Amino acid sequence: MIILKDILYKIPIEKTIGSTTVAVRNIEFDSRNVGLNDVFVAIKGTVSDGHDYILKASEQGALVIICETLPETVINGITYVQVADSHKALAILAANYYENPSEKIKLVGITGTNGKTTISTLLYDLFTAAGYKTGLISTVKVIVNDTRYEAKRTTPDSLTINRYLQEMVEAGVEYCFMEVSSHGIHQKRTESLHFAGGIFTNLTHEHLDYHKDFKEYRDVKKKFFDQLPKSAFALTNADDKNGAVMLQNTAAKKYTYALKSYADYKAQILENNFTGLLLKINNNEIWVKLIGAFNAYNMLAIFGAADILGMETLELLQLMSTLESVDGRFQYLISEKKITAIVDYAHSPDALKNVLETINSIRTGNEELITVVGCGGDRDATKRPIMGKIAATLSTKVVFTSDNPRTENPDKIVEEVEAGVPAEHFNKTVSITNRKQAIKNACQMAQENDIILIAGKGHETYQEINGERIDFDDFKIVNQFLNALNK
């Protein structure tokens, strides 16, 4: 048991009713999980307000209620702590409860629209290969040294983050690489974490269903760098105009990387094909197994971060050359009939454009590029026609289909994607809402040497339809159809 006043340390408190010397058990922000002697933190969420469940939490045995608005009736024997911001209070509580584990390891956060998963995962792979005990918190998975957990969201809640970090400390982990989403920053899930460094990848049209406009989206990302301590490093992409914005008010030591601009870490692409990239990084030539200019940026960020963290250059280059692509990120196979299928997570206009331009820069032009793409439901609808235009303009054939429709009508989403197709490209598009049928159709269209891109879902092994997740794996499905064609 833990004494309440010990975990309230550093929380700005407006009012307290009851004792702060009581012994408490767990911290919960979901009233359904509250048990005897727990602390319940009432959070105002996007869907529901935890303040509506204070009475329920009390009935289930909560000993402490932390809230922004005190209930009209207070119950004798329960301690009430009023705070200005429950999200921030939860983050500080979580860090204190788990004894501030982020201060005991080198935690590096990666933020930006695209590249977060690739950079964080490959930094984990790199440092693990170098012999360090390493942790990872990503969209795809959480790894504590060698123990793997399924990830539920890009940036977990404060309690989950600190629980994993404490587990890492107990396992002797030295470095942890963590994806930091704009949602996570905005909801203060990363407050009270001590970061040894931050990496900015890029900023493009995304999450405008959540943020009111692009400026707010950018400023939320910037806040992450504003909060870095003087002891940390801030590494940003100098080729993205927002890279300089991220560095404006940070106390951290500033570093940049770029392909086109002057930077601390500079690279040139010497060769680019379906087997990998030949790069020249700060006058060192290196062959890597990843493909495309966007991965050149990712590898440059990895090189810069590892160099700043003290890895010796020769060892760093040798280990980078062994790194493999991340699941669902330009993951490809070549069938017996020499049809190339590529599965990629590209679900924003910029990501889709990057992948298609990469494929077009490698292909000869004699083969077809068949793109299967859709857009998710209950998310930023303004990007749908933009993605339709990009797919139709940069592909030779396009199959528009369903992604994760969630609670929206998938046919309506497809229509909104189609609306962006320029008139001169109408004849190269077809719409098949059923995603499995759409992939099958693309496979049947393809001839020898053709390329199929299946975009949007990448590593995901499900489709989310009306609140349910059904099994669905793009890579397995395209592999299955291409194998059937071989027979």
From TrEMBL:
Pathway(s) it belongs to: Cell wall biogenesis; peptidoglycan biosynthesis
Cofactor(s) this protein requires: Mg(2+)
A Gene Ontology cellular-component term: cytoplasm
Could you tell me what reaction this enzyme catalyses? Answer: UDP-N-acetyl-alpha-D-muramoyl-L-alanyl-D-glutamate + meso-2,6-diaminopimelate + ATP = UDP-N-acetyl-alpha-D-muramoyl-L-alanyl-gamma-D-glutamyl-meso-2,6-diaminopimelate + ADP + phosphate + H(+)
User: Could you state what the record's PTM comment says about this protein?
Assistant: Carboxylation is probably crucial for Mg(2+) binding and, consequently, for the gamma-phosphate positioning of ATP.
Q: Which residues bind ATP?
A: 112-118
- List, alphabetically, the InterPro entries matched: Mur-like_cat_sf, Mur_ligase_C, Mur_ligase_C_dom_sf, Mur_ligase_cen, Mur_ligase_N, MurE/MurF_N, UDP-N-AcMur-Glu-dNH2Pim_ligase
UniProt modified residues of type N6-carboxylysine: 221
Q: Which residues form the Mur ligase N-terminal catalytic domain?
A: 24-98
Query: What's a BP term from Gene Ontology annotated to this protein?
Result: regulation of cell shape
Give a GO molecular function annotation for the protein: UDP-N-acetylmuramoylalanyl-D-glutamate-2,6-diaminopimelate ligase activity
Per the database record, which ranges form the Mur ligase C-terminal domain?
Answer: 328-458
Enumerate the UniProt keywords alphabetically.
ATP-binding, Cell cycle, Cell division, Cell shape, Cell wall biogenesis/degradation, Cytoplasm, Ligase, Magnesium, Nucleotide-binding, Peptidoglycan synthesis
Location of the motif Meso-diaminopimelate recognition motif: 403-406
Q: Which NCBIfam families match?
A: murE, PRK00139.1-4
What function is annotated for this protein?
Catalyzes the addition of meso-diaminopimelic acid to the nucleotide precursor UDP-N-acetylmuramoyl-L-alanyl-D-glutamate (UMAG) in the biosynthesis of bacterial cell-wall peptidoglycan.
The Swiss-Prot or TrEMBL record describes its family as follows: Belongs to the MurCDEF family. MurE subfamily.
Q: What is this protein called?
A: UDP-N-acetylmuramoyl-L-alanyl-D-glutamate--2,6-diaminopimelate ligase
